[in-house]
Amino acid sequence: MRKIKMDLYADWIETVKQIFRGSGHPFEPGTPDEVIGQTYYRQTSETDEEAAQRHEANVERLREMERKIRDHFGDVIEPDLRKRTGYEGDSFEFKWIYLQGEKIVELNSEYMIPLE
To answer: Which of 14, 28, 68, 80 is at 20 to 30 A from 103, Cα to Cα?
Structure first.
């Protein structure tokens, strides 16, 4: 039985935390994800309302990516992943990363889905 683990939004939030920590402005432990996301977008938004809207659009975009991966896993992604990587296991862990552009990586097989 296949097991798929994935929370692309949580991965994005962790990346934002790393960015702020690296810039010398870490978030306090327990800071809500929504505050972290909006703070990220506040850096390039004219208003708090725009930052909130951009954050919400990003949440929806990441959730939609998750839905597409789950919906097309058996008929498109899994066969391609197995063909390209030779991975034979039944556990799949997808992570959102930013490495010279946005990507989703399946950690067990190192299968990569570029988003740009």
So the answer is: 28
